[in-house]
């Protein structure tokens, strides 16, 4: 399986490559009042506002700074709960130290055996250490999802 690898603190994490729409340089963001601390702000993407989540802050790790290899990973985030009416919206994920694309053996993935952060998925070990997958559909709590992606016709 191909994955996009990045760091949160000293640890390596990954998103399945099929979930990545684009990778953009870190950019200036507009703040969102009353949003949780891990909501970095809004990205102006060709005139369309895209919410951006700071993955370090979401994981409870103090973001160090923006680095030359910090990126906004643009994904198609599922805003509906599956089924025939599956809807996605663009979501930016601010990641420090984006390494790039790597291949991991799907058979080597194992359950992490931890709870508390539902967005953390399976882990794999390779020559560089452990790599943990991010489960995109469980990234945002329902109330934050509703705040960032209001139903059609509601004000943002």
TrEMBL record:
<protein>
    <submittedName>
        <fullName>Chemotaxis protein</fullName>
    </submittedName>
</protein>
<feature type="domain" description="CheW-like">
    <location>
        <begin position="1"/>
        <end position="145"/>
    </location>
</feature>
<dbReference type="Pfam" id="PF01584">
    <property type="entry name" value="CheW"/>
</dbReference>
<dbReference type="InterPro" id="IPR039315">
    <property type="entry name" value="CheW"/>
</dbReference>
<dbReference type="InterPro" id="IPR002545">
    <property type="entry name" value="CheW-lke_dom"/>
</dbReference>
<dbReference type="GO" id="GO:0006935">
    <property type="term" value="P:chemotaxis"/>
</dbReference>
<dbReference type="InterPro" id="IPR036061">
    <property type="entry name" value="CheW-like_dom_sf"/>
</dbReference>
<dbReference type="GO" id="GO:0007165">
    <property type="term" value="P:signal transduction"/>
</dbReference>
<dbReference type="GO" id="GO:0005829">
    <property type="term" value="C:cytosol"/>
</dbReference>
